[in-house]
Amino acid sequence: MDELGWLSTIVIITLFLGLKKLNAIIKNPLLKALTNPVLMTIMLLALLLISCSLPYSQLANDSQLLTSLLEPAIVALALPLYQQFIHIRNNLILIFISCSIGIINATVMATLLSAAFDAPPQLAASVAALSVTTPITLLVTESLGGIPSLAATMVIFIGILGALFALMILRLVGVHNHQAQGVAIGTTFHAIGTAAVLTEPQKISAFASVAMALSALLTALIVPLLYPFLSQALL
Amino acid sequence: MDVKTSLPIKLLPYLISSTLIVGCLAVAKLIMNWLQGSFPAPLLGMLILLTLLLTKTVKEHHIAPSAKPLLNFMPLFFIPAGVGFIEHLELIKQQWQFLTATLILVPLTSLLLIAFVIGLFKGRAEHG
Predict the structure, then answer these.
(1) Is A116 in the same domain as A16?
(2) Are A74 and A59 part of one and the same domain?
(3) What is the pLDDT averaged over residues B99-105?
(4) Which residue in the set B24, B39, B124 is minimally distant from A143, CB to CB?
C-alpha cells in the first residue's frame, strides 16, 4: 500500500460519512430511503472508477484496511442479536417460524426464477441469500459461489424498495397487525426497511428489529444448507 | 486522577472486548479450517459469541466497547466489496430482466407470506 492507497481509503471514509450526515438531515422518509448513504457511496465510487477507467482490483487492494474489519464486525453482530433475543421470549416460536419461512421462500423463489430465466449458475448463487442484511449476504453468497458484490447491491436495492412500499402494500392487502407488519418488514427488508418504520407505531419497529437480527442468524444457518440442494433439484 | 495511570485503565475495556471478538473469530477460523467446510467463519464466530452471551459466560458490557464502534461503522467495511459489481456489468446487462424480476418477486412474496403466517396465528387485529 502506497500513499495513493491511503488516499482511496480516506476518500471512501469521507464520502460515506459526508453522505450519512446529509441523509440524517433529510426528514421526508421517501427521500431519506432514496438517498441511502451506503448505496450512494457505492454508486459514486463505481462511477468514479468507470469514468476514470481505473481497475476495481486497485480499489479492492487499497481498501484492505477497511475490508479487514468486516469479519470482526460480523462477529460483533452477536451483541444486537443477543439484545433483541431478550425481547422476544413470549413470541419466540412464532417469530422464529415466520422468519424461517420468509428466508426459505426467498431462496426457493430466487432459485425458481433462476431456472425460469435460465440464469447462469454464478448468477443463481448470487441471488440465493437476499433476505438478509448486507454483510451476511456477502459472506453467504461467497460461500455459495456467487458474486458477493452483486448480491450486496441487490440487497440494498431491496431494502430501499421495502422502505418505500412495504407498509403500503401490507395495508393494501389488509394486514394491520403490528407484529405481522414488523416481522415481515424486518425479515425481508433488513436494516433499511426497519429504519423506515421507526416513525411508525413502536411495536412495528421493535418487531422489525427482532426479525432483522433473527434473519441474520437464520440465513447463516439455513441458506448454505438449502441452496446446494435446491440448485441440484431445479437448475 | 493522574493521566499516566488512568490511560491503561481506560483502554482496558477496549482491549478485553476486542480480544473477545478476535478470539471468537480465531476459534471459528480454526474450526472451519479443521472441518474443511464452506460455512463462513465470521458467521460461526458470531454464533460462538452469541452462545457465550446467552449462557452469561460473557456479559454485554464486556464486548460493547469494541462492538459498538465496529457496528456503527460496519457499512464502511463492506462498501469496497459493494463496488465490485462493476466487474460484472456485462453479465448484469445481459440478465437485467432476471435481476429485475428477482428484485421485485423475492421480497414481495416473502413479505406477504410472513405477514400471512403471523396473521393466521394472531388474527388481523390492529394490536397483535
Answers:
(1) no
(2) no
(3) 96
(4) B39
The total domain count for chain A is 2
State the Cα–Cα distance between residues B103 and A196, nearest whole angstrom: 19
Are A96 and A3 in a shared domain?
no
* Predicted pLDDT at A112: 97
Whether residues A6 and A74 share a domain: the answer is no
Place of cell 472508477: A49
pLDDT recorded at residue B3: 55
Question: CB atoms < 10 A from the CB of A49, how many?
Answer: 18
> Is residue A34 predicted with pLDDT exceeding 50?
yes
Distance CA A16, CA B75 (A): 9
- Range(s) of the domain holding residue A1: 1-68
Q: Which residues of chain B make contact with A114, given a CB cutoff of 8 A?
A: 98
Q: Are residues A30 and A146 in the same domain?
A: no
Chain A with chain B: Cβ pairs closer than 8 A: 293
Span A137-196, pLDDT tens digits: 999 999 999 999 999 999 998 998 998 899 999 999 999 998 899 999 999 998 888 888
Nearest beta carbon to residue A79 from set B60, B75, B121? B60
Which residue in A66, A79, A140, A200 has the most chain B C-beta atoms within 10 A of its own C-beta, making it the best mutation to test that interface? A79
Give the up-direction half-sphere exposure of residue A157: CA atoms within 13 A in the CB hemisphere: 18
